[in-house]
Amino acid sequence: MIRLFAVASVALAITAVVLGLGGPAWDKTRELSDRIVGAATPTPGPTSTPTPLPLPTATATPALPANAVGLHRWDTLPVHYCIAHGEAGFIDLPTFQQLTDQAFAAWGVPTVDDGICSAAAINDGDHVNEIGFGTPPGAPPPGSRVTEAGLTLTTYSECTANCEPEDPVKLVEADIIIEKTAPREFRSRRCLYSTLLHETGHFLGLNHLPAPAVMEAQTSNCPQQLTQADIDALLARYGPRAHPSG
Ligand SMILES: [Zn+2]
Known about the structure:
single chain, two-stranded parallel sheet, globular
């Protein structure tokens, strides 16, 4: 999956690649329960009359839609991610984190920003979803006049036995590496946001789409808004669990 940003005389590119690593069966090792914060237990005051607690309001969590054709998606929400600080880029870490949060908010799939990653480096295979600056491998061929600006690595498991028919494919890890030495023209908050919006789309399981779309493979204007095509692709995976904003 390659995304190219073409610009006037000098073609500059933002490249993203999704590598799918198929697992032999469901991977159930992902552990999110340690990050779930339980409701606080109210402590009655010493002189107060205990007040019956109101019955908890049943907030139904919408179900993910059926996934008969095996679209890549997370089936455990919210998805956690953290910001890798191992390599400095062209924008400071707090701004990078803010733009990442903003990108996920635009897609509107439940996510949790866990803050700065405990490991400095981005490690594919550790089941921690790390997002940060780095040097994406796989530079474009010489003379292509394109420049890589981002890489999303996704790992998913495919069901091969005792499958739940409604969810045959699920993501188990995604890491995003943003090119730390992007071309000067793209070293802006605006273009970084566009790249993060695109890469977080891959993070959520989306593939490239025909233009116009944030997920289009080639563009030249650092798009800031999801298009209907982006939104449709997202809703096909997450249905009522997602609240994207175009
Ligand atoms: Zn891409």
